[in-house]
């Protein structure tokens, strides 16, 4: 199992609430993820605040645009010193290659760069509405192969696809899996879900977990329970 596989998704509209949770967490126990909501509200200062507290940060902005624009955005993420950032694989091969190339000047300090395959909130029926008439796992495999061809470090997928992707793309290609739900927690808008131990057993490298921790009555206890379940 990867060291520190838990990435806590900080989806808050109030910076103090996020910082109150962070103050209770230990950077040796988890990494943090900031997405579109918090980055739009609080910007690069939030990234600095999190780094000042000793945490690795996944900047989850899922860039999807023309290659030149995405390359510049990924370089801007590298300037912030984040640990990991991402693009949408459906932006295509040229876009992903441009993103990867933009990180070359950063050498060993470049963030890990991964691509979102099919959002974990989407089902086969959602894909059909987009004219994609194959099961989600098949579309995920196609986009993950393209991501590897572009030279990226891994993909965002559901843990349900992890075993197949590890055997298709090798153990070093990182699998970052949201849609993680401990037994008894509400799936909410997530469709392709797994429990934390199931996800690790299936081959996930990193588990993205938001509401089961952040909306719990005691978020620290919820994180500790997940941590224990993986021990
Ligand atoms: O396919 C994806 C890609 C990203 N996410 C993000 O992960 C977290 C999940 O939060 P939960 O509260 O545990 O559902 C959230 O920030 C999403 O933007 C994803 O869920 N699925």
Automatic annotation (TrEMBL):
Recorded GO MF terms: orotidine-5'-phosphate decarboxylase activity
The coiled-coil segments of this chain are: none
User: Can the keyword Lyase be found in this entry's annotation?
Assistant: yes
Query: Which sites bind substrate?
Result: 11, 33, 60-69, 120, 181, 190, 210-211
Every copy of the Orotidine 5'-phosphate decarboxylase domain together lies at: 5-226
What residues form the catalytic site here?
A: 62 (proton donor)
Reactions catalysed, as given in the entry: orotidine 5'-phosphate + H(+) = UMP + CO2
Whether NADP counts among this entry's keywords is no
Give the record's pathway: Pyrimidine metabolism; UMP biosynthesis via de novo pathway; UMP from orotate: step 2/2
- Which enzyme class? lyase
Q: Which UniProt keywords apply?
A: Decarboxylase, Lyase, Pyrimidine biosynthesis
EC?
A: 4.1.1.23
Could you describe the subunit structure of this protein?
Answer: Homodimer.
Q: Which HAMAP family match?
A: OMPdecase_type1_B
Q: What does this protein do?
A: Catalyzes the decarboxylation of orotidine 5'-monophosphate (OMP) to uridine 5'-monophosphate (UMP).
Entry's family note: Belongs to the OMP decarboxylase family. Type 1 subfamily.
Q: What is this protein called?
A: Orotidine 5'-phosphate decarboxylase
Which species is the source of this protein?
A: Shewanella scandinavica
Starting at the broadest rank, the lineage of the source organism is: Bacteria, Pseudomonadati, Pseudomonadota, Gammaproteobacteria, Alteromonadales
């Amino acid at each position: 199992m990867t060291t520190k596989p838990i990435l806590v998704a900080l989806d808050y509209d109030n910076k103090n609430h996020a910082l109150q949770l962070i103050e209770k967490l230990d950077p040796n126990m988890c990494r943090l993820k900031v997405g579109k909501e918090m980055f739009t509200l609080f910007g690069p200062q939030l990234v600095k605040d999190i780094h000042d507290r000793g945490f690795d940060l996944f900047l989850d902005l899922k860039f999807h645009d023309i290659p030149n624009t995405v390359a510049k955005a990924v370089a801007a993420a590298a300037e912030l010193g984040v640990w990991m950032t991402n693009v949408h694989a459906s932006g295509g091969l040229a876009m992903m290659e441009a993103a990867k190339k933009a990180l070359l000047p950063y050498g060993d300090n470049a963030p890990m760069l991964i691509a979102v395959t099919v959002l974990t909130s989407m089902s086969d029926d959602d894909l059909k509405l987009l004219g994609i008439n194959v099961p989600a796992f098949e579309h995920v495999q196609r986009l993950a192969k393209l991501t590897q061809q572009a030279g990226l470090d891994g993909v965002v997928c559901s843990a349900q696809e992890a075993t197949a992707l590890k055997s298709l793309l090798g153990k070093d290609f990182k699998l970052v899996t949201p849609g993680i739900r401990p037994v008894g927690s509400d799936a909410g808008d997530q469709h392709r879900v797994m429990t934390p131990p199931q996800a690790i057993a299936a081959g996930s490298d990193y588990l993205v977990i938001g509401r089961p921790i952040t909306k719990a009555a005691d978020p620290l206890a919820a994180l500790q329970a997940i941590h224990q379940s993986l021990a």
